[in-house]
Specification:
The chain is an all-alpha fold. It has helices at 15-76, 83-168. Helices cover 87% and strands 0% of the residues. The mean pLDDT is 88.
């Protein structure tokens, strides 16, 4: 015999949403691990780049000083120079030219090393940016899923209330 009651089943199956949220949380965790790994790998390179940069700056300054010395030698050897200035400049010319050539080689080597290290740093920065972008995107997706899940619960409650109110009219 029926008692005239209507029973509403309000159970909501969230299993797929829960799976999707776990998947997104896992992707976020992996992206965070990637950031940590890449930041740790980048740190020694940043220190190496600073050291190379300082050495490169010093080598460039030394090359610039030798270039100025070479200019002074060339001026001392110009026509109309005092004979003693010419003789001293001519004696120093081969040494300064050789030193400048060696210094320019050192600058080139250091520049190449500095460029290579900075390229690696840029590569790590790109990986870190990709991981951060992934975290941002997946966090937004997770927030959207959670909001949808909450919205379904609210809508279900509203529908239940409406149905209950309608059923009360038939009593």
């Amino acid at each position: 015999m029926s008692d005239g009651k209507i029973v509403f089943n309000t159970k909501i199956d969230n299993s797929q949403v829960d799976k999707d949220l776990k998947y997104l949380e896992n992707k976020i965790r992996k992206a965070e691990e990637s950031i940590t790994k890449n930041e740790n790998a980048k740190l020694p390179l940043v220190n190496q780049a600073k050291d190379l940069g300082a050495r490169l700056d010093a080598a460039k300054a030394s090359a610039h000083m030798l270039q100025e010395e070479l200019t002074a030698i060339n001026q001392a050897m110009a026509p109309g120079s005092a004979p003693d200035d010419y003789t001293a400049a001519a004696a120093n010319l081969p040494k300064v030219q050789a030193a400048l050539k060696e210094q320019e080689k050192e600058v080139a080597v250091l520049q190449k090393q500095w460029d290579a290290v900075n390229k690696k740093i840029d590569d790590y920065d790109a990986k870190i940016k990709t991981a951060r972008d992934s975290i941002t995107a997946n966090t937004a997706k997770a927030a959207k899923l959670t909001a949808q899940q909450n919205s379904v619960g609210v809508k279900m409650q509203q529908a239940f209330t409406k149905a209950s109110n309608a059923a009360e009219k038939f009593r």
